[in-house]
Amino acid sequence: MDHIELLRRLAVSDASLGHDLGPALVKPDQLDPKTVALVRLGALVAVSGAVASYGAHADAAVAEGATEAEIVDVLVAVVAITGLPCVVSAASKLALALGYDIDDILEHQPSG
Predict the structure, then answer these.
(1) Residue 92: burial class (beta carbons within 10 Å; 0-12, 13-18, 19+)
(2) pLDDT along the chain (112 residues), means of 10
(3) Using the 8-state DSSP alphabet, how is residue 30 labeled?
(4) How far apart are CA 56 and CA 10, in angstroms?
(5) Which of these, 81, 73, 88, lies nearest to 38 by C-alpha position?
(6) Element (H, E) at 46
(7) What is the pLDDT of residue 23?
(8) Which of 52, 64, 86, 97 could lock onto 34 through a cystine, CB 3.0 to 4.6 A?
């Protein structure tokens, strides 16, 4: 594949790219697919992943049976390792990935 195609596929977080890049992106065989999807979301928080990546991986987690509550719980699980600023940054990306209107969420936050 040429570099333009590779760049495009990376930019849109093309899930089939793993098949083309080889064994480095193979799924673990000791974890169930839902757990793998949730762990990958946690890794996105740690590396400050892009919005497109959150969309693709949140969709993958839902496809593997994860609930939205479990997906949000990933943020709680990693905060002690990644720190609150990383989780705050990730929360808006994850909210968008799950189809929530960030502006609406911010407008309705409690005063205090």
Answers:
(1) middle
(2) 79 74 63 93 94 92 96 95 94 91 71 59
(3) S
(4) 11
(5) 73
(6) helix 33-46
(7) 52
(8) 64
Report which of 66, 59, 67, 45 is spatially closest to residue 14, judged by C-alpha positions.
59
Phi–psi pair at 69, nearest 5 degrees:
-65, -40
DSSP string, 55-94: HHHHHHHHHTT--HHHHHHHHHHHHHHH-HHHHHHHHHHH
CA distance 29 to 104: 40
Instruction: Centre a 10 Å sphere on the Cβ of residue 66 and count the other Cβ atoms it contains.
Output: 20
Q: Write down how long the chain is.
A: 112
pTM for the whole structure: 0.73
